[in-house]
Specification:
The complex is a heterodimer of chains A (142) and B (387). Chain A is α/β, with parallel strands linked by helices and 142 residues long. Helix content of chain A is 37%, strand content 26%. Chain A has a 5-stranded mixed β-sheet. Chain A has a two-stranded parallel ribbon with strand order 1-7. In chain A, β3 and β4 form a beta hairpin. The radius of gyration of chain A is 14 Å and the shape is globular. The two termini of chain A are 14 Å apart. Chain B contains 14 helices and 9 strands. Chain B is globular, with a radius of gyration of 20 Å. Chain B folds into 2 domains: 168 residues, Rossmann fold; 199 residues, Dehydroquinate synthase-like - alpha domain (Dehydroquinate synthase-like, alpha domain). With 387 residues, chain B is an alpha/beta fold. Chain B starts with 15 loop residues before the first strand and ends with a helix. Classes of the chains: A alpha/beta (142), B alpha/beta (387). The interface between A and B is medium-sized, with 19 and 21 residues.
Amino acid sequence: MAKIKALTQEWLDAYKAAIVADPEYKQIAKDWEGSVSLICNADPGKGIPEPIYMFQDYWHGDVGEFVVCDKAKADSAKFVMTGDYSRWKQVALKELDATKALLQGKLKMKGDLPYVVRNIKTVNKVIDILGAFETQWPDDPE
Amino acid sequence: MGYDSDLSFNYFGPTKIIFGIDSSKDVEIEMGPYGGTKAVVVTDEGIIKAGLIDHIVKALGTKCVGVFSDIPQDTGVEVVDAGAAFAKKNGADIVVSVGGGSVIDTAKGMCMIITEGGSLRDFNGVQLLSRPQTPHVVIPTTAGTGSEVTNVAVIMDKQMGQKRLIVEHFNIPRLAILDPKMTAKLPKLMTAGTGMDAMTHAVEALHAMPHEPITDGLAIHAIRLLSRYLPLCVANGNDLVARGQVQIAATMAGWAFGLSGVGNIHALAHSIGAVAHVPHGIANGILIAECMEFNIESCPEEYALVAEAFGVREKGMDDMDAAKAAIAAMRAFTKKIGHPQKLSEMKVKENDIVKAAELSLGDGAILNNPRLVLDASEMLGIYKKVL
């Protein structure tokens, strides 16, 4: 299977499909309400000339809109997570624990921390799925 | 002790420490390198009545543009916003906080609003800042919170009905002046309670999931200092040598937990503080041994280090035996310093602990606990044992 280019609409579609296909996700995420945006800061040297904004809608174990979007839509999400390209890649490759990254300032999160903590199993599950499909990263050799 | 092969961490402790009797008189000299020339002093009425502010205002001279002192025991979002408005109105460009945790955390919030504008309620998240904030000089009047060196502020949000945990690397105080005289007037109970806050920071820094060798070193020596000098402070508040060593221990423990995190003791203490207004340090001191019992199977090696620091690890003890000895030592220690043993002594009721147990599952501290916490009933069980 061909690798999917990271941080593209195709990649988000694959991510959504992987979440839907996961046998445990629906049950684990049954209490989660609300959208999450991932913002990847620009890093021209690594193939990210402009920031990339990705909006994902989650609701009680169902998944809705997963789109590459503009800044305004990304900022409208219930939770907005921002980080450098290299950090997102490390999270996806499971080289960096997202919770630890937040506390160390490697990622930023706007949103209600207690809500995230109460639903940490859901958060960990979607991060786990993020690395579940073959991805072509912009700074990796083709 | 061993560490995982994938150990990775950031160590970041940018606060300059000035220690010594009467060092608080040097505040104007020491704040020079940080660029501020218009200082707002942040404190509370108790500190003013105790006569701990006059010499600082005098030392600042014309660089003091005002004193903000309307701060309750548990500070809130509205308090921070009011303090920031006061500072801006007076043109402040540096903040000098003189007090305990509530005062220091208020000042941390004020530094953010002075720099970024808006209300503290706008800062709902983690590590949101992207530039250094208004310089902050801390002169602690308690020895416990360690807030003088951490990136953390705990601010009550009445709208949320919960304490808000603000974590910002760009808002760590630039300078902390540890003057033992500033803690000499603390009453016995406050001395014991704030000291147990420091002890809890040290123990939690050791057992928190992200702990690492540097923070372990700080935590272990903090426990050694506290076990030796905190009883001396409680017995004689004017023992400035002991006061000073406890101040240093609190700062070391602050550095340790500020980087490695805390666990279920703090999650439970924050929550019972929010529900029943139990002072934070006293809540920690009441909960610490029972929380260690809860965690013991997950971190016997770390608690064995606590036993070593207390000097109760005997020859031939394995880690689990030593961990049990640490818990016994902790119980004995809290009794020795006259610390409350039960939440009911702080007027906590059965329905308070039910609410607090639910609340604790949303506290960021619980993420770093060495034993995974899955259900509020587990936390309720701990509360019941110390009710």
